[in-house]
Specification:
Shape: globular
Radius of gyration: 12 Å
Number of helices: 0
Strand order of the largest sheet: 3-2-5-6
Low-confidence stretches: none
Structural class: mainly beta
Strand content: over 45%
Order of helices and strands: EEEEEEE
Helix content: under 10%
Length: 81
């Protein structure tokens, strides 16, 4: 059964590209290469989730969000210095 969700527009700053993973309740629901200047639009279910950018085994940044039905959030991910 499909449920309404939220839309996250994820942008990358500070590097040309990185892998991006989106998790809901500990389950990875998306995993793709994110390119600077080319934001990715991801539809997620309502609830608690986290977005991680990484390269290999190195986590560059991880952020936690609450998604509400109908939300549209812009997220700017930037690796830690």
């Amino acid at each position: 059964m499909l449920r309404p969700g939220a839309t996250f527009v994820i942008d990358l700053a500070g590097r040309a590209q990185a892998r991006c993973a989106v998790f809901v309740a500990g389950l990875r629901i998306e995993d793709f290469t994110l390119h600077a200047g080319d934001p990715a639009e991801v539809v997620v279910p309502a609830g608690e989730l986290r977005v991680r950018i990484y390269e290999g085994d190195t986590v560059l940044q991880e952020r936690h969000f609450t998604a509400r039905v109908g939300d549209r959030q812009a997220i700017r991910m930037q690796p830690h210095a």
